[in-house]
Amino acid sequence: MIGIINGPNLNLLGKREPEIYGSESLEDINNWLLDRVAALGESGVIFVQSNSEGEIVTAIQEMGYNPAVRGIVINPGAYAHYSIAIRDAIASVPVPVVEVHLSNIHAREEFRHRSVTAGACRGMICGLGKLGYALAVESLLS
Q: CA 26, CA 96: separation in Å to the nearest integer?
């Protein structure tokens, strides 16, 4: 099983700044990802989306200590740039975590160029849209 965590404002995908984030909703991306994960032979996915930092920390802890979860893909959204609490939660769990961003954070505003959460992750993928989620899952399963 793979955990997928999406942070603040990702519930507005398809409506919010489609020129940056595309026209697909989070539900569209999750459904697409379910098919990709199944094609890799993985049995299940746990999806969490929250605009709350504390709920994201709790999701990381619950998934990270769930023996059925093989890894976590997280798109922390704007929390990537300043949430030490999320960074510490990622560092505290025994399963690998891969950070994903739909847009290329390095081609955007200066404040988005640094991720404090990525340093606690196995790796980070940015700028590849929804494909980044699938590549993150593939890396966790290999």
A: 23
Active site residue 81: no
Which pair of structure tokens corresponds to residue 44? 């299940």
In the chain, count H helices and then E strands. Answer: 5, 5
What's the alpha-carbon Rg for the chain, to the nearest Å? Answer: 14
pTM (whole model) above 0.70:
yes
Three-state DSSP at 3 gives strand
Mean pLDDT of the chain: 93
Q: Distance (Å, rounded) from C-alpha 53 to C-alpha 136?
A: 22
Q: What are 127-141's pLDDT values in tens digits? A: 999 999 999 999 999
Do 101 and 132 form a contact (C-beta atoms < 8 A)?
yes
How many angstroms separate the CA atoms of 99 and 40, rounded? 20
Q: Which class for 22: exposed (0-12), middle (13-18), buried (19 or more C-beta within 10 A)?
A: middle
106 in active site: no
Q: Is the pLDDT of residue 69 over 80?
A: yes
Residue of 101, 106, 113, 133 with catalytic role: 101
